[in-house]
Amino acid sequence: MNEFSIVCRLLGSLFQRDPSDPILSPIITLISEGKLSSLWPLEQDELFNSLKNSVKDLAPVTADYQSLFGSEMPAVSIYAHDYSDIKEANIRQFLVARGMPVTENATDSFGALLLAASWLEDNSAEDEVLAQTQLFDEYLLPWTGAFLGKVEAHATSGFYRTLAVITRGALSALHEELLDDNADDTEVE
Q: Angle formed by the axes of helices 3-16 and 25-32, to 10°?
């Protein structure tokens, strides 16, 4: 697993799951001990210090997650179709065409799309960069700004406000990397 995959998997998991989910426990521990920033490939140390300080008490972070994304009337929708004309069925078809196993869960949630980008990096065929670029350009980036802006505006804990800023910077860097890789591939041909 390379840096692109790790960044997408970590961010996807943090948006996809409640912070009290046992699957997130190792990630939350790394954050609370200040160890995730040393493993993070991007220069965002100051933001990770803020993230570290915000998980000293997980109860408010969990309550914030529920208020933001988990309740029956969440403050922020996690689904692409609520921000744009992106259809969940199109994302599902795109992922299945690339061999990704999908469940009946929605494929157009923010976390699921990041996890899909990680999967494409780790499992895709020769056209992985093109597939990742298409995923970013057509299904993720068109609504990311609005989504992360709402997260920042509605979050009551510093954790999700900081995570939104980290994510914005990370996605920008990852997209730039994809564009560079596409340019390199074009030059080779």
A: 100
